[in-house]
# Entry
Amino acid sequence: MRPVFFALAIWGAIHPVYYFITWFQAEGWNLWAMVDAWHVNAATSGLVWDLTIAAVTLTIWILVEVARSRNFLSLIAIPATFCIGVSCGLPLYLALRERIVYAKDKRLVRV
# Structure
């Protein structure tokens, strides 16, 4: 599944960033103007809050898993989530998490 998750992470990075760059080129490179555009109506505000809650949940999950597994490389999914989006951060984390396999006796085994 790792290749699938990495492919989704790449798609989740490229596709949204294309739209962000397109918007910045048309409207100017003002981050606060983009944040204002996200809250132009109730539907977009709902999507923003949905993704924000998902991003916070993913971050907590990553931090708990890293504390347990010591898979520190997976921490890069947190800035990917908040700088690009959940569409990149979640599949990236799942791909990095696939590196860890738990043995039957609950000892951590790295593959």
